[in-house]
TrEMBL record:
This is HYDIN/VesB/CFA65-like Ig-like domain-containing protein. GO terms for cellular component: axoneme. The lineage of its organism: Eukaryota, Sar, Alveolata, Ciliophora, Intramacronucleata. It holds the Pfam family HYDIN_VesB_CFA65-like_Ig. Residues 37-117 form the HYDIN/VesB/CFA65-like Ig-like domain. Transmembrane segments: none annotated. Keywords: Cell projection, Cilium, Cytoplasm. It is found in: Cell projection, Cilium; Cytoplasm. The keyword ATP-binding does not apply. GO terms for biological process: axonemal central apparatus assembly; cilium movement.
Amino acid sequence: MLTFSTMNNVFEQHKVILMGEGFNETITFEGLPDDLEDELNIGDCIIGKAKAATFQIVNNGDKDVKFRWSSADKDEFRFYPAVGHLKSKCAKRIKVMVRGTQAIKFEKIDLTCEVNQIEQAAGQ
């Protein structure tokens, strides 16, 4: 409950009950091109020439995780690293390379990142 008073009037007091809901995403992406929240916009590419974009994968959770990128049947996309471990409260820079061999337009395709909680042995 929040109580506040009207300035210069000691007889007027207001009470307000505040309610809300919050959540914490365990894995987030930061620094995506064009400041997008969950989209990777690489822009136009030259056929036969690689184009790169970088961003960070962030583990906001309390447990270490293993991640694995999958571009499914999209051979034009490569992630570096494609597989890795990410400690709790840490981030890792990801580089994605796109190289087309023919004229093609990709729009709103799924490039998935599988994330699993892991327990690493002491000293790793």
